[in-house]
Amino acid sequence: MVTDGRGGWFLAMPEDYCIGDVSVNGIARLRPDGRLDKSWHGRVPHVPVAGAVTELDRVGDTLYASGGGWVEALNARTGARRWVFKNLKGGLGAGLVANWSVVFVGFRGGSLLKGKRHWGPVALDARTGKVLPWHADLPGKPRAVGPLALDGGRLFMAVNTPQAAFLAVDARTGRLTGWRAPQIGEAAGPFLVTHGLLITTNADGNAYIASAETGQPVSGFGSQGLTGFSTIAASGNTLYAYGVGLGCARSWKIQGQTRSSVAAIDLRNLKLTPWTPVARTRYTCIRGIAADRSQVLVAGPLTARGLGGQ
Predict the structure, then answer these.
(1) 147 near 158, Cβ under 8 Å?
(2) What class, spelled out in words, does domain 58-69+82-299 have in CATH?
(3) For the whole model, what pTM was predicted?
């Protein structure tokens, strides 16, 4: 889920899914009041390895989406397609992040790209969708690359190699930087780079917080895998997090406190804040969080008792 920049939201969904009685082809837009925008229509490519839309990112009035073997750019206001890139060999993997000029996409190491073996992330021209002559200088031949995160001029990535779980390259040249976080032994799930911190979800079953400048553990909250975040989002100076994994539970613990829903952490000092969702129903299954300056969007499946799904 990502904000549309105008108070609404974009949701990545399975093909031919329904919201209410309206069929949605992979991507839906919610208005600021939470209602489905029935006037917004995006076309998701139909290719042999399509599956669900798994990644979304937005830069200005362009929405980028990927899933399976394709990446596309859409007009964020209307849903009209601007370009689509297909790799029918299914090499595209987890991770999609963009700036004003480049779209970086995770890749399954060793898959074919234009008939050649490819081991690192793919860089696409944000204007045309064409593959750029850009290559990441990665050690060895990683079996998978992604998720991804951009921070200034650096592209951070989770890599599946014996040497490291997280690396950073120069986003312009692809050259490997000296940044490492050796204390993070496994790359699992999306991560954020913000406020000079790299924050993971469920690495080795726990979340880690490392310095985005040195890679060293940040003393205090979560630095040694003390909290297992399963989904996170950041807006302003606040990190919103949930930590029960993919299962459902009535409560979870964070910094010694018990919470029944999403928690908020001040990114300036990594202290838990008193903020908590005020809701008529306790949502015990939370799979996704998104945030903008004024709202936090929480999503999850329905449970046996009919909770969640809001």
Answers:
(1) yes
(2) mainly beta
(3) 0.90
